[in-house]
């Protein structure tokens, strides 16, 4: 199963206007060795397109891994607003 | 202006237990939870130990949980599997005593937390869901309330309990932690709920009915040498299958994503056959961090008008997959301390130190201290997750496979195999390290 299909199983209430994850400085990502946020994220949220980092925050599972793993604290990381984001039925 | 005696941040087991204790002693408490309902953001394996809940609520809570249908199966058997690429060594323990006096139930947190919150509400606490605590309100260097995500959402109070879970966002803001947690202090776990018929689950685990079940912890080849534990737990009509690895290892390895590791686990013949045709279906996919840093990673747990409980205090004993019990017990002890504080009218750091002393006298800090070096020993010594499980499997295969080799020769071969792949000195050192880590 692809990660997109896995995420498709879940319920989300997305706050489209207010992304809760933001790259602070793209220049830092350009120089970042291995870009560990990409590989460590369990939801495949981060994608490097050769020039900049795409952040597909809609699929985020709010685990906090990217927050901890980024060597430069280059992600402005918040939980989504109350009542938004991932909504587990089983947990 | 809204006023409560106590504001609890987070409606997980830690926060709910603190609120239960406080509200049942007549203290006005609000629990603020960002999820749509308590449990909607929460994930665990989910083995819920019962003794802390009995202490907090009463002995009858177990029957109540069964009647309310908020638990999955009574764990009457626990297993540990060691995987090599093509083999498995199984060790386990089943006990009749667990049938009549349950030790632990498997649970699904979205259901369990929600039920627990309703129970807490009945004691008089107010659960404010769909609401995130953004920050504290300060006066003269003391916390006097919280700012929530709601318009005019300030809540003033005499004391705050931080039960925010593993990401220490507010613990940092409160100044109780100088530095954020690091990739060595947490594991990332992913989990799927795999639907399966009740009968098939009963068959697989050899249990007579849908109220009894088993757990399997899995280490070995699936984690590619990284420090990781997989788990497979039986629910009523589904299986919880998960895989957790230390973030530091995942970062260093830089080849596998967490879901690829879960897929590795699933593709192992022993797991794959167990799951059968259900292998590729799932009802939900989730991810959550598990505190792994233990004793050394704990923040300051108390200060003027504030206490930290549960995962926010890094109170997890990952070797024994115990976290929810620490959460419940620490919540209860924080609640008790605050009840005393209200009696005395004293919320100073000096008085609230009582909470820390209670923790120190409980199993929580004793266990965390005992295992304080184990995670770092394991993390630095990948042979525990890679070489040993495969060596054990190869040895068993060699020993049990009948091909005409005399037994004494076979033993010599096995011995040679261990010596070659790990070395005698290496094995001795490993044994000592393990011993040191477990003995504490
Ligand atoms: C995969 C996995 C398997 C596990 N298996 C087991 C097991 O088998 N047995 C066991 O005993 N333990 C297990 N654990 C550990 C256990 O889940 C935790 O120790 C336990 O949940 C901690 O409880 P808590 O109340 O401290 O935190 P949490 O359960 O994380 O609760 C924190 C709550 O606070 C809320 N919150 C956070 N910030 C805010 C905010 N700013 N405003 C409002 N609300 C907020 C969250 O939404 C959440 O509801 C496992 C953990 C994981 C991830
Ligand atoms: S780890 Fe941090 S700096 Fe590196 S690419 Fe990701 S966000 Fe950018
Ligand atoms: S919080 Fe977790 S799921 Fe969300 S983007 Fe970061 S690593 Fe991915």
From TrEMBL, chain A:
<keyword id="KW-0535">Nitrogen fixation</keyword>
<comment type="similarity">
    <text>To ferredoxins from P.putida and C.tartarivorum, ferredoxin I from A.vinelandii, ferredoxin II from D.desulfuricans.</text>
</comment>
<keyword id="KW-0479">Metal-binding</keyword>
<keyword id="KW-0249">Electron transport</keyword>
<feature type="domain" description="4Fe-4S ferredoxin-type">
    <location>
        <begin position="51"/>
        <end position="80"/>
    </location>
</feature>
<keyword id="KW-0813">Transport</keyword>
<comment type="function">
    <text>Could be a 3Fe-4S cluster-containing protein.</text>
</comment>
<keyword id="KW-0411">Iron-sulfur</keyword>
<dbReference type="InterPro" id="IPR012206">
    <property type="entry name" value="Fd_FixX"/>
</dbReference>
<dbReference type="InterPro" id="IPR007859">
    <property type="entry name" value="ETF-QO/FixX_C"/>
</dbReference>
<dbReference type="InterPro" id="IPR017900">
    <property type="entry name" value="4Fe4S_Fe_S_CS"/>
</dbReference>
<keyword id="KW-0408">Iron</keyword>
<dbReference type="Pfam" id="PF05187">
    <property type="entry name" value="Fer4_ETF_QO"/>
</dbReference>
<dbReference type="InterPro" id="IPR017896">
    <property type="entry name" value="4Fe4S_Fe-S-bd"/>
</dbReference>
<protein>
    <recommendedName>
        <fullName>Ferredoxin-like protein</fullName>
    </recommendedName>
</protein>
Automatic annotation (TrEMBL), chain B:
<dbReference type="InterPro" id="IPR059103">
    <property type="entry name" value="FixC-like_C"/>
</dbReference>
<dbReference type="Pfam" id="PF01494">
    <property type="entry name" value="FAD_binding_3"/>
</dbReference>
<dbReference type="InterPro" id="IPR002938">
    <property type="entry name" value="FAD-bd"/>
</dbReference>
<protein>
    <submittedName>
        <fullName>NAD(P)/FAD-dependent oxidoreductase</fullName>
    </submittedName>
</protein>
<keyword id="KW-0560">Oxidoreductase</keyword>
<dbReference type="InterPro" id="IPR036188">
    <property type="entry name" value="FAD/NAD-bd_sf"/>
</dbReference>
<comment type="similarity">
    <text>Belongs to the ETF-QO/FixC family.</text>
</comment>
<feature type="domain" description="FAD-binding">
    <location>
        <begin position="4"/>
        <end position="355"/>
    </location>
</feature>
<feature type="domain" description="FixC-like C-terminal">
    <location>
        <begin position="375"/>
        <end position="438"/>
    </location>
</feature>
<keyword id="KW-0285">Flavoprotein</keyword>
<dbReference type="Pfam" id="PF26311">
    <property type="entry name" value="ETF-QO_FixC_C"/>
</dbReference>
<dbReference type="InterPro" id="IPR039651">
    <property type="entry name" value="FixC-like"/>
</dbReference>
<keyword id="KW-0274">FAD</keyword>
